[in-house]
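> forwarded from #structure-qc
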């Protein structure tokens, strides 16, 4: 028996354990200080009543002989796949229910989709980046090329035609930088992928935060994307399902590589390794996409957008360079006073009692940057902005 030695190539993730340790030490020294936490990317608003009502009703169905359900379809119940297709259609994007696969979140599918590709593939990943993209490919032993995202390009790098890759990762709106690609930029990636026979893994987990109709919320709004892109989305940030776990992946029928359909391969993978998302959770997700549900979700999204605006105004007043905030719940700010990200973490905690996320945890290009989240309460957001203005 041999272990997968690629696991030993992974960098130990100390980011959030280090944050917790430093915050605990600060709290012990300053028990009187209220600590405002703006680091974790988790939602705080409760689920809307229309969603919890659907969850409760589905749970009651499971307790009755005539409505009890056992194993469901691995690719998702037809009612939810149709609801997701309608969600796209309302934005003018055509995706059929057969192309939609319900899963337990974008994170899982982004990792599991790699089962479809050879370990010999070369991967193009931006830096800084959501760590799942990097770690899952290291586990498989793939060669990784980093796409340099910096303040000079607004953290929106474009592919270089001289660099050849087989798998490309795009997250827009981006985690951690909050930056959003426009149509012209996304078309550059699509053209690159088609010219090189590559596939794009497009993470659209934060698409609902985009308020400008000129900015794409789905890569399938652009020409040629159906031939080269797989889109991943989640109910976590759109509908507050971080505790329920539900998302979906879209694989168009046009995704044909070496004569094989990726859609059929993914279906085969899911029917082998996945038993589907629970019926009550899928009913809750469908309720979230109903007209009443969408109205309630928009209220929560508007709440977070206003929090982001408050933080963005504060950074503008301080003259701090940042990205995100307008179409994203994240604000990616340059550390003040020339500090490194961990140095700034300690300084902000000591002087303002505010916790954020050091950019170094997302890659080398995050070393002098810091992430703030708009997912907190309005009261804490206003207080945190006030504290930082006084620094």
């Amino acid at each position: 028996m041999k272990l997968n030695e690629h696991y030993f190539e992974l960098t130990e993730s100390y980011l959030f354990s280090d944050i917790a340790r430093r915050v605990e030490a600060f709290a012990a020294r300053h028990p009187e200080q209220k600590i405002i936490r703006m680091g974790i990317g988790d939602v705080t608003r409760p689920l809307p009543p229309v969603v919890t009502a659907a969850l409760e009703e589905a749970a009651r169905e499971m307790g009755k002989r005539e409505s009890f359900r056992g194993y469901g379809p691995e690719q998702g119940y037809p009612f939810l796949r149709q609801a997701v297709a309608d969600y796209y259609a309302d934005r003018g994007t055509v995706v059929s229910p057969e192309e939609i696969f319900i899963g337990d979140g974008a994170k899982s599918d982004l990792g599991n989709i790699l089962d479809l590709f050879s370990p010999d593939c070369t991967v193009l990943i931006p830096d800084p980046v959501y760590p799942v993209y990097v770690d899952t490919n290291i586990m498989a032993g793939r060669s990784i090329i980093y796409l340099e995202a910096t303040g000079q390009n607004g953290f929106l790098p474009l592919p270089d035609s001289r660099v050849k890759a087989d798998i490309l990762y795009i997250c827009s709106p981006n985690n951690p930088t909050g930056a959003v690609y426009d149509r012209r930029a996304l078309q550059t990636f699509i053209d690159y992928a088609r010219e090189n026979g590559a596939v794009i893994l497009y993470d659209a987990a934060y698409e609902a935060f985009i308020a400008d109709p000129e900015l794409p919320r789905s890569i399938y709004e652009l020409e040629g994307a159906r031939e080269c892109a797989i889109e991943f989305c989640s109910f976590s940030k759109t509908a507050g399902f971080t505790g329920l776990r539900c998302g979906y992946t879209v694989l168009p029928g046009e995704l044909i590589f070496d004569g094989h359909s990726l859609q059929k391969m993914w279906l085969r993978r899911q029917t082998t390794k996945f038993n589907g998302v629970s019926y009550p959770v899928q009913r809750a997700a469908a309720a979230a996409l109903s007209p009443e549900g969408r109205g309630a979700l928009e209220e929560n999204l508007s709440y977070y957008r206003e929090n982001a605006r408050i933080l963005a105004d504060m950074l503008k007043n301080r003259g701090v360079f940042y990205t995100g905030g307008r179409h994203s719940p994240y604000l990616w700010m340059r550390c003040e006073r020339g500090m490194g990200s961990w140095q700034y973490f300690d300084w902000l905690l000591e002087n303002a009692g505010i916790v954020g996320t050091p950019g170094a945890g997302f890659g080398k290009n995050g070393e002098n940057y810091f992430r703030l989240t708009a997912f907190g309460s309005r009261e804490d957001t206003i207080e945190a902005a006030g504290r930082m203005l006084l620094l």
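QC bot note: The radius of gyration is 21 Å. The chain has a mean pLDDT of 96.
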